[in-house]
Specification:
With 283 residues, the protein is α/β, with parallel strands linked by helices. Helices cover 31% and strands 18% of the residues. It contains nine helices and eleven strands. A nine-stranded mixed sheet has the order 6-5-4-3-2-1-7-8-9. A two-stranded antiparallel ribbon has the order 10-11. A hairpin with a 3-residue loop joins β10 and β11. α3 packs across α5.
Length: 283
C-alpha cells in the first residue's frame, strides 16, 4: 500500500458532465467526521513502518474544500510525516484559503481543468475566467511566500474536449506546473484482458469510513469493510489480496469487468508535447 485516498466529502458545488457525482451517484452524501479521519490516521501510523512513507490524498469524489475542517485534516496528516495531496476544482479558493493551504503542510495541489474558454465552460458550467483568475492568484501567492509544494493541472478527457491538450498547456506553461491526463472513466460490457494496476498500490476510504478498492467505485459497490470496525492493513492483506488474485486469474467482479480505466497505456503520452499521467485509449 503506497497511497490511501481519503474522501473528505462527496458533496460538490459543480455539476460537471464528466462526473457521476450528481446524477449517477446513489449513495448517501456527507462529510468525513473527525472520529473517522483520526481512526484512518491512527491505523496508518501503526502500519506505516511496513514500507515507505504513505501518501494521503484528501480527495476522491466531491470537492474537498467544502469540508469545514479540510485545513486541520491536512495538517493532521502532515504532522505525522505522511505526504499529502489534494485535487480541487479550485472554485472555492481565495487569497486567505490559498495561504492556509500552503501553511497546512500540503505537499501537492492539483487543479482539475478540462479545457480553456468555452470548452471548460461547456463541461464545468461556470465562466472560465473564474478559475483562471483563482489559479493565477494561487501561483502568485506561491511565488511570494516561497511555498515548496507541487502544483498540477489534471485534465479529464472526453469526446467533447479531446483536442484541449495543447490549449491547456499553452495557457499554463512556464509556471512550474505539472500536467496530467486522465481519460473519462466509462463503464461498458467488454472483454477485459489485464489486471488493474491501481489496486496494487492504492486503497480508498469513503467519507463514512467504508473501504473500497479504488476511486472508480463511486457508489461503494465493492465494500471491503469500514475503518471503525476493520483494519486497513488487514483488509489490504486479506480482501484486497483476494481481489488482486482474482484479477490475475481473470475473475473480475462486475464493476471491474465493465471499467475501462484499466486499459490503455500508463506513463507518458505525446500529444504534440509531453504530458505525464495515466492515459486510457478506449472510449
Amino acid at each position: 500500500m503506497n497511497t490511501v485516498g481519503v474522501e473528505t466529502t462527496n458533496h460538490c458545488n459543480l455539476k460537471c458532465i464528466t462526473c457521476p457525482t450528481h446524477e449517477r451517484m446513489k449513495r448517501r452524501r456527507g462529510y468525513m467526521s473527525e472520529d473517522v479521519y483520526k481512526e484512518v490516521l491512527r491505523q496508518l501510523d501503526c502500519g506505516s513502518t511496513k514500507g515507505n512513507p504513505l501518501s494521503v490524498g484528501l480527495s476522491n469524489w466531491g470537492e474537498p474544500l467544502l469540508h469545514p475542517s479540510i485545513i486541520d485534516y491536512i495538517n493532521m496528516a502532515s504532522t505525522r510525516s505522511f505526504r499529502t495531496s489534494l485535487v480541487t476544482n479550485g472554485t472555492l479558493l481565495n487569497r486567505d484559503l490559498s495561504k492556509r493551504l500552503m501553511d497546512s503542510g500540503l505537499d501537492e495541489l492539483t487543479f482539475s481543468i478540462d479545457g480553456v474558454g468555452k470548452a471548460y465552460e461547456d463541461i464545468r458550467g461556470i465562466p472560465y475566467n473564474n478559475i483562471k483568475n483563482k489559479i493565477d492568484e494561487f501561483l502568485s501567492i506561491k511565488e511570494t511566500v516561497g511555498w515548496k509544494g507541487s502544483v498540477r493541472i489534471r485534465t479529464v478527457v472526453c469526446e467533447s474536449n479531446s483536442s484541449a491538450f495543447k490549449e491547456i498547456y499553452d495557457e499554463w506553461k512556464g509556471h512550474g506546473i505539472e500536467f496530467s491526463i486522465q481519460r473519462e472513466v466509462l463503464w461498458k460490457d467488454a472483454e477485459r484482458n489485464d489486471p488493474c494496476e491501481f489496486i496494487k498500490s492504492t486503497i480508498v476510504v469513503l467519507w463514512n469510513g467504508d473501504i473500497v478498492p479504488c476511486c472508480v467505485d463511486y457508489d461503494g459497490e465493492l465494500n471491503l469493510g469500514n475503518v471503525m470496525t476493520d483494519n486497513l492493513f488487514q483488509v489490504w492483506d486479506g480482501k484486497m489480496e483476494a481481489l488482486r488474485l482474482n484479477h490475475i486469474r481473470g475473475n473480475y467482479p462486475s464493476l471491474c469487468r465493465k471499467c475501462t480505466e484499466w486499459s490503455g497505456n500508463t506513463g507518458d503520452e505525446y500529444v504534440g508535447f509531453r504530458f505525464k499521467g495515466r492515459v486510457r485509449t478506449e472510449w
